[in-house]
């Protein structure tokens, strides 16, 4: 199976669905316990239930803007159908969230075509501590298991630990890592990585970048320089700018997304650490607010716990009894 076959995968495996169910347990327990309290003693969906539901969604880190949109849709359904019992609320909410994710990921990840790019270049951005380098390692493993040749570029040269960590991941999953001494020019590392990828016929090159958000101007200049240098080797690179966010930080992840999308042309998102948080609702809010596809989710610490985001599987798992 080659790179493009891997990315066109249509169905979630049983093992992946089980990992997703386990990874979302904290979010699901938190979410449904709040909904149960909101409808206690109520037989129909009235204004009080909707007010309580609004609070549930906001405190589950769906975000105010997205929450209001969901509430308005449910209000319209209730008004149209005249009588809607509270027992139908789960189904109603599930339908609206499913539809919202469908609208905001019009280029569904599983059907996305990558064309003839070789190497396909992914530049990974995000602040320190979100699981950026770990996500790179797990993605490299996933691609390699699919039969693709992968090379990693250690362009976060401001922290020795970052370079060491990506080298460890390279050793662990068996892919080449291009690195230079700490303090080297990140653009130079990216240039060398792509030159190596072209020379060796690699399918994918994944470039790590410094996890700093010191200021938008400085970040923009740094990332622009890296992109310009890469394009000298591979025209059109990077083909994907992947922003890694820690789901457990809730609304802070949304703020980071805002900062990075203002600094560079992010076109893909990875949300990590869903298994360790009750704030999984942030997936819904980020998807809605930024209209950028969530492509990967981290649902555990294992090397195989990075999943392609399947919106139907996500919602099915979230609402599974």
UniProtKB/TrEMBL annotation:
What GO terms in the biological process aspect are recorded for it?
A: SRP-dependent cotranslational protein targeting to membrane
Domain SRP54-type proteins GTP-binding, first and last residues per copy: 293-306
The membrane-topology field of this record reads:
Peripheral membrane protein
Location(s) in or outside the cell: Cell membrane; Cytoplasm
Keyword Manganese in annotation: no
What functional role does this protein have?
Involved in targeting and insertion of nascent membrane proteins into the cytoplasmic membrane. Acts as a receptor for the complex formed by the signal recognition particle (SRP) and the ribosome-nascent chain (RNC).
Q: By what name is this protein known? A: Signal recognition particle receptor FtsY
- Record organism: Mucilaginibacter hurinus
Gene that this polypeptide is encoded by: ftsY
């Amino acid at each position: 199976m080659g790179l493009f076959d891997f990315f066109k995968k249509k169905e979630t495996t049983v093992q992946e669905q089980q990992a997703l169910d386990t990874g979302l347990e904290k979010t699901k327990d938190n979410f449904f316990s709040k909904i149960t309290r909101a409808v206690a003693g109520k037989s129909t969906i009235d204004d009080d239930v909707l007010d309580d539901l609004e609070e549930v969604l906001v405190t589950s880190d769906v975000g105010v803007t997205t929450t209001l949109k969901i509430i308005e849709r449910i209000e319209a359904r209730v008004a149209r159908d005249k009588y809607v019992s509270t027992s139908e609320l789960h189904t109603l909410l599930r339908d609206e969230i499913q539809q919202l994710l469908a609208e905001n990921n019009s280029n569904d990840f599983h059907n996305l075509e990558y064309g003839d790019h070789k190497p396909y270049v992914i530049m990974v951005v995000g602040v320190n501590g979100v699981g950026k380098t770990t996500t790179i390692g797990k993605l490299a493993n996933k691609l390699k298991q699919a039969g693709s040749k992968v090379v990693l570029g250690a362009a976060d040269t401001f922290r020795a630990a970052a370079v060491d960590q990506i080298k460890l991941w390279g050793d662990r999953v068996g892919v080449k890592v291009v690195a230079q001494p700490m303090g080297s020019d990140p653009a130079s590392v990216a240039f060398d990585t792509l030159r190596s990828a072209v020379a060796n016929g690699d399918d994918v090159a994944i470039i790590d970048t410094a996890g700093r958000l010191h200021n938008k101007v400085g970040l923009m200049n740094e990332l622009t320089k890296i992109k310009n240098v890469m394009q000298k080797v591979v025209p059109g690179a990077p083909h994907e700018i992947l922003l890694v966010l820690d789901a457990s930080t809730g609304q802070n992840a949304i703020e980071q997304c805002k900062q990075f999308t203002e600094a560079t042309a992010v076109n893909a998102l990875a949300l990590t650490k869903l298994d360790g948080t009750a704030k999984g609702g942030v997936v819904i809010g980020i998807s809605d607010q930024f209209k950028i596809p969530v492509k990967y989710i981290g649902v555990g610490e294992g090397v195989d716990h990075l999943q392609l985001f399947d919106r139907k599987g996500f919602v099915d798992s979230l609402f599974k009894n």
